[in-house]
Amino acid sequence: MKSRDLKTIYDVIVTEYKMEHIGEGRFLHSFKPKTTNTLYQFEANGVAEMEEGERYNIGFREDKDGRKIVDLSCISKSDTVNPMLSYIYAKEFSKAKHTVNKQKNDERVTHEATDGYYWGKKYAWREFGLVISKDAFYAYLEQIGHPKVPCITANPDMAFSNDPSTAYKEEGLAEAMELLITTAEKKTKALYQSPHYSKRFSIRGIEAITDKK
Prior knowledge:
Blueprint: E1 7-23, E2 26-33, E3 40-44, E4 55-62, E5 68-77, H1 83-96, H2 98-108, E6 109-110, E7 118-120, H3 121-128, H4 134-144, E8 148-154, E9 162-169, H5 173-182, E10 185-186, E11 192-194, E12 197-201
Parallel strand pairs: 3-5
Antiparallel strand pairs: 1-2, 1-4, 2-3, 4-5, 6-8, 7-9, 8-9, 10-11, 11-12
């Protein structure tokens, strides 16, 4: 399932967890968050996937009948990193700041490219890469050969400050990040690896996602 198909809820306390046998070894699992009467469902085997009273981050979609169907790959306890949930949260975080980021990019970054919209490297990370570190984001784009151009970035806090830098083409950035995260496999307690990037990297937990560093 693509991340754009998913909606998310965070730090949900699970209540009224039930399993109903629906035949052929399959069960309909359901629960409600402690603070609402909204019902969430998913099909699985007869083993409980969640614990009553525990806190979870959850990804789900709504079917044509309006039922909220949980994606089994997007269930994690609130204190555990789930790559896809972190990625979705990072996208939502960036979306909320898109207007500000784009305004700063337009005002401070200059380049000579004419084949599309380009983001100065700092703003590209803020817009597309918050789920991983700046260094990993830049190194990944370098390795996959993502289109880039030289640019000048102005610092409004310093008179006559015009720093040479790099700007990345917007087209393909979102797809590149989604490919990295959806193919990431956990290799150590804190590090992941993807066949599309030669270095191991960390994926930020939801509580650690920020555009400040």
